[in-house]
Design brief:
Layout: E1 2-6, H1 10-20, E2 27-32, H2 35-45, E3 49-52, H3 61-71, E4 76-81, H4 87-92, E5 97-100, H5 105-134
Helix pairs in contact: 2-3
């Protein structure tokens, strides 16, 4: 699974990279410190999942989501933030999950595993529908 990390704090980006570096099923395809960098990486790397901070200078995580929807790409999004008051807005924007900082390894692993299972379930359903159509 290809993952993009977006956070304006370099230490937060490095921590997430460190937490994921031993996972053989995960490839970190890039890190971005702002929304514009993240959108460029989204187009060039096509990540399956984005670990996204909400509050960043300039454009915030919700601006990123708007631009993603406009682009037609549909990566999963897990908010990684220190602010819990964005949870309802995150749900309304179809965010897959919401992790509070400081990030715990178990919580990050569980969230990514749930996303991977969700993707696999959708693929199985698509394959079943295709087979039914072919019959």
């Amino acid at each position: 699974m290809k993952i993009l990390i977006v956070d304006d704090e370099p230490e937060a980006r490095e921590l997430l990279k460190y937490m994921l570096q031993e996972k053989k099923e995960i490839e970190i395809v890039g890190t971005a410190g702002n929304v514009d960098q993240a959108i460029r990486l989204l187009h060039s790397k096509s990540p399956h999942l984005v670990l996204l901070d909400i509050q960043m200078p300039g454009k915030d995580g919700f601006h990123f989501i708007e631009q993603v929807h406009e682009s037609g790409q549909e990566p999963g999004i897990i908010f990684v933030t220190a602010y819990e008051h964005y949870a309802i807005q995150a749900i309304r924007n179809s965010v897959f999950d919401y992790i509070m900082k400081p990030v715990r390894q178990e919580e990050l692993d569980t969230s990514i595993a749930r996303y991977a299972e969700s993707r696999n379930r959708i693929r199985r359903q698509d394959l079943s529908q295709l087979l039914e159509t072919l019959k």
